[in-house]
């Protein structure tokens, strides 16, 4: 969202910068990012329009705003068509030590009140920190506007002394989810390799490292220990698709 309170000149300069970026992104066929920039630029121009008294300048601004709204609407229609055709693809590259990629920040765009069922395929929900990652992901699903009723987890079984810890940890999560009216369906596979998350509204997210892309905190009292937007990440790639029909495990 564009910040309010900018003077006409500062607001105009900021709008020009953002709109210029939108045009560049559109020319590179990076339509989702272009749409965001157009929307922000339009908001800035509307603020400038409110603070403009000269009628000639107002007329010029209205024309520019109308043109950019048309471009944004065309991009939105195109993206909607891509979603319907199952061709939508967006890629996010998380750099080494990057921050700002908590589960909420990464998934919030794709979660809404229509989501009732979620599928997670991740072979590494085994060790203690990985179980906490999965728990944190479940917490996000429970508290967000979506009305999740069922979560399916397909993972690999730990061997040796860690087997009991994995089993008991997942059972505790299952019981806790049940107390919130959510069913956790657990399955194990010895051959699973892919990492994939699917929502029943058609969104599918593939993360190279699965849910385990956060680095270990420097200490128990360092920033990022609790707030994962401040937690440095391992380098990984996130691929986002939209399929009209989400397959089930």
Automatic annotation (TrEMBL):
Pfam families: MIT, MIT_C. Keywords: Cell cycle, Cell division, Endosome, Membrane, Transport. CDD domains: MIT_1 (cd02683), MIT_C (cd02685). It is a peripheral membrane protein. The keyword Membrane applies. Residues 8-86 form the MIT domain. GO terms for biological process: midbody abscission. GO terms for cellular component: late endosome membrane; midbody. One of its GO terms (molecular function) is identical protein binding. The keyword Iron-sulfur does not apply. InterPro entries: MIT_dom, MIT_dom_sf, MIT_domain_contain_protein1, MITD1_C, MITD1_C_sf, MITD1_N. It is found in: Endosome membrane; Late endosome membrane; Midbody. It comes from the Eukaryota. Homodimer. Interacts (via MIT domain) with CHMP1A, CHMP1B, CHMP2A and IST1. This is MIT domain-containing protein 1. It comes from Catagonus wagneri.
């Amino acid at each position: 969202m564009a910040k309010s309170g900018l003077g006409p000149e500062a607001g105009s300069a900021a709008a020009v910068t953002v709109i210029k970026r939108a045009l560049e992104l559109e020319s590179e066929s990076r339509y989702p990012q272009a749409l965001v920039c157009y929307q922000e630029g339009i908001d800035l121009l509307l603020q400038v329009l409110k603070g403009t008294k000269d009628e000639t300048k107002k007329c010029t601004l209205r024309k520019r705003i109308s043109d950019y709204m048309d471009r944004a609407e065309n991009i939105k229609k195109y993206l909607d068509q891509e979603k319907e055709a199952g061709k939508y693809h967006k890629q996010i590259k998380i750099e080494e030590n990057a921050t700002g990629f908590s589960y909420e920040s990464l998934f919030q765009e794709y979660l809404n009140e229509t989501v009732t069922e979620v599928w997670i395929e991740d072979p590494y929900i085994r060790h203690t920190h990985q179980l906490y990652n999965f728990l944190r992901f479940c917490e996000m699903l429970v508290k967000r506007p979506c009305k999740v009723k069922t979560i399916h987890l397909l993972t690999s079984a730990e061997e040796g002394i860690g087997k009991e810890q994995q089993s008991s940890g997942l059972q505790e999560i299952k019981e806790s989810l049940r107390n919130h009216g959510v069913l956790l369906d657990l399955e194990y596979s010895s051959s699973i390799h892919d990492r994939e998350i699917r929502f029943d509204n058609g969104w599918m997210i593939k993360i190279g490292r699965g849910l385990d892309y956060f680095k270990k905190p420097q200490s128990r009292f360092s920033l990022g220990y609790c707030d994962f937007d401040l937690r440095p990440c391992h380098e990984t790639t996130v691929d986002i698709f939209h399929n009209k029909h989400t397959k089930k495990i």
